[in-house]
Amino acid sequence: MSDDLRLRRLLWLRHGCEGLYGDDGEMQCGVCLLDFKRDPVDVVERRFRDIGVQKLAEAFTAQPPERSEAPE
Q1: Which SS3 state, helix, strand or coil, does residue 33 take?
Q2: Which of 14, 39, 41, 37 is nearest to 26 (CA)?
Q3: Which of 3, 17, 71, 72 has an alpha carbon within 20 to 30 A of 33's alpha carbon?
Q4: Whose CA is closest to 36, among 7, 8, 6, 15?
Q5: Sign of the torsion formed by the C-alpha atoms of 47, 53, 57 and 59
């Protein structure tokens, strides 16, 4: 197995989604819609960046938890 394929496999296994498909040597994710075996590195990088920006935007727009008044 080439170094490139070994690194792609590690990235696929540990990238954090639960939608992994790996039958017959495939390395795909049904959640982030990446094919770790075939997609060019710049496509994987761009999708990871887009997911990160989306998560950051969601964190900023999330409603803060309601604060309860401290007992006096």
Answers
A1: coil
A2: 37
A3: 3
A4: 8
A5: positive
pLDDT tens by residue, 12-27: 999 989 999 999 999 9
Eight-state DSSP code of residue 65: P
Looking at every residue in the chain, the average pLDDT score rounds to 90
Question: What's the DSSP call for residue 37?
Answer: T
Rounded percentage of the chain residues whose pLDDT exceeds 70: 93
Q: Residue 65 and residue 42: Cα distance in Å, rounded?
A: 38
Pairing verdict, β 28-29 and 34-35: antiparallel
Q: Which residue has the tokens 């094919």?
A: 35
Residues 6+ apart with CB under 8 A from 11: 36, 44
Residue with tokens 């496999």: 9
